[in-house]
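Exercise 7.
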Amino acid sequence: MNKIFNKPRTWLLNRFHLHLLPNQWWRQYFQLSESGDDLQPKSWRSVEGLVQCSANYVPLTPISFLERAADVYRDRTSVIYGSLKYTWEQTHRRCVKLASALTQLGISPGDVVATLAPNVPAMQELHFAVPMAGAVLCTLNTRHDSNMLATLLTHSQAKLLAVDHQLLDSAVAAIHLLKKPPLLVIISDAGDRPPSDLKTNAYHYESLVDGGVAGFSVLRPTDEWDPISVNYTSGTTSRPKGVVYSHRGAYLNSIATVFMHGMAAMPTYLWSVPMFHCNGWCLAWGLAAVGGTNVCLRRCDPKDIFDTIVLHKVTHMGGAPTVLNMIVNSPEDHRKPLPQRVEIMTGAAPPPPLVLSKMEELGFRVSHLYGLTETLGPGTSCLWKPEWDSLPTEDRFKLKTRQGVRHFGLEEVDVKDPITMESVECDGKSMGEIMFRGNTVMSGYLKDPKATAEAFTGGWFHSGDLAVKHPDGYIEVKDRSKDIIISGGENISTVEVETVIYSHPAVLEVAVVARPDNHWGQTPCAFVKLKDGFNCDGQDIIDYCRNRLPHYMAPKTVVFEELPRTSTGKVQKFLLREKAKVLSSIS
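Solution. The predicted structure, written as tokens, is:
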């Protein structure tokens, strides 16, 4: 008896369950170890009667969303762009023909096809057509200059670049810097014909679609871990990295994002999030899964947003906090009463409670998501609890700024000490680094094994974001690890300081960074943009903060100017930190 209890628990469980299973089955599934003293499980694949075949296994890929949409939602409107409309059946046909045309141009499985375009129908189609040709999509930031474009085209080894006609000058300038320039495909709106005097050979997008074969046999992935896209990080650190997404990860994150956004069948989605950013938070694919309507906007302007919502009865949209800020501070004559409450997802930095309150007054219901390019966009959401509805207004909006809990596509999200890899206490005070683990984490950084190894240290993806974990398990971001300010030995969260300054009635935008200080080591430096028609000075901002924060957290310096942002709304704090250093050197 003592020998039995000295055995590992797994051995006992295995022995116990053997009495419950058919004799032949367990002999197939278990095998004796070399010592003959224990039973070890074999692979299920070796069990008689079980087989993996085309009847029960197909590699996961977002391509299947479009194929189903063409069948189930065939007459439902898939895309609206001005007066242009397509159904899902038409979109599927166009994507198949475009995939065919790409192969005719010499695009082979594994080749990279880059895009440089705003939220126009071609961008939505390329998200499906490129993987249907077996290729890998690389959506480039429309604000990159020609030098950066040339660098990324070289790094990704793109064989083809599809560019919007309004961005053609930057694309051509980039191509002229390359030794091996990619093929050029020009996207143009109806009535806007691309120039015919280019000094480089180019194809017209619509001509390619027209010349494609409708019966083309789509090239689906043989392995769902095959890459579907490469997304370059936004450049907030001035060093973009190529983040590789797999078909499997894109499939799962598309479904998770649709679920988090509360999208039932056939929503109408306004594209204010750039499709080039994390593939539109994976909704460029996900909307096909629910037969949604893509309402495309070439530019993100408050008046256009309100007009489009009313005209097309938009139900859902997304945007960084800067988009929310732009909406709540838009002129009265640009706003319109909304036909129904519009669900809007926001990400990036936590939106100030005041902005959330004003958005709800205008008819929007804001959900807060959190993620990174490396997590294929959204990874967590502030899942709302019904009991929170009865809380005071201020408390409700403070809760909404949390980053929340993981979606069902992720295995784990935790806040850990990056050195010991131990989880921090769930006390809302102990700070650590947010880490992810699961199927919707990137495959790695393209051609950068060192950066990939660093990001996956300890078997988790390290976000670089510092946060606390509350007793209910919800996480709350406090800062980026590189943005935290250490003043006189005290840690200062720039997010907390920014939230207070945002509540000042004259402030439109703010970013806080560390300024070197000979006595304290670092002190907070606030870069502020005021609302039109408002005036205040730096001391007013400092006094306002001192009345609401511990004095050591209040900024010692205030600079009034435009904030440098990426096209996805993120403040480029690395540029502001350089300015703060210069201020210190001349003071």
